[in-house]
Prior knowledge:
By secondary structure, the chain is α+β, with helices and mostly antiparallel strands. The protein is built from one helix and three strands; from the N terminus they run αβββ.
Amino acid sequence: MYLADLQLANRGWKDDFCEILDDLMESLDEQPTIDAVPVVRCKDCKYWSRDRANIHRGYCLEIVPEAWMNENDFCSYGEPRGERKE
Length: 86
């Protein structure tokens, strides 16, 4: 059996833990950001036509009329309803 000052041991652990978290946060702040672009989901796209039998799927009028899409799918052709291509 070992005798130990648990308050001292606990304080040291907390200090080490906080230091590790600080290093981690600093490291994350230094990471490059991603080059993200917003996507238009099929349900919000002007080319999507909803299926009458299943409200969660439809087909795309821009790509292939016979290709079924789920409402949360997306592609590079997506354009929000109401916007025009110039």
